[in-house]
TrEMBL record:
<dbReference type="GO" id="GO:0005516">
    <property type="term" value="F:calmodulin binding"/>
</dbReference>
<dbReference type="GO" id="GO:0005879">
    <property type="term" value="C:axonemal microtubule"/>
</dbReference>
<feature type="region of interest" description="Disordered">
    <location>
        <begin position="51"/>
        <end position="107"/>
    </location>
</feature>
<dbReference type="GO" id="GO:0001669">
    <property type="term" value="C:acrosomal vesicle"/>
</dbReference>
<dbReference type="InterPro" id="IPR052102">
    <property type="entry name" value="Enkurin_domain-protein"/>
</dbReference>
<feature type="compositionally biased region" description="Basic and acidic residues">
    <location>
        <begin position="81"/>
        <end position="102"/>
    </location>
</feature>
<protein>
    <submittedName>
        <fullName>Enkurin, TRPC channel interacting protein</fullName>
    </submittedName>
</protein>
Amino acid sequence: MSEDVHLPESAFNLLPVEDKKKEKAPRYISKFRPAVMLERKLVKEPIRTMGPARLELPSPENFLKKHSKEPKLPEQTQSSKDVHKTCSFTERKPPVPRRNDKPLMGIHTKRDFLKETPELVPMKPQPACVDTSKGHKQVLENSGLVPKFITRKDFGRVPAYLQQRTHPSCC
């Protein structure tokens, strides 16, 4: 079994065999790499975020107390306490008249009630017809669904300018 196996001789076996391995191009290295490395060293320190944070531990005397994190109301001063008793911004109003007191007559004011009254009256909503179940409205005023001009004096009569045209004496 240990016999050598010889392949048949050939002229091609006599030629020297050349290695056909291609030479690799040099590896790409960015021309900005040194600048990036410098920039990285300037900004960061090595292993900055690894491990527990290096902080000063709070002293045991300054422990958290109950309700210490809740917001506190400002302390009341003497002037803020007096505001609730009497209003300091206005004078004291006269007392409400009794039921059997008669009103004073002849008091005049500069207030014009005729100008103020129409402004205070609330506006009436425009009459509208709801068309669909979704709530689409149509205002009735200009829709033609409500009779508008039947109450006029000249409703149903021929206008005066048409009567003049049809009259034979005008032309």
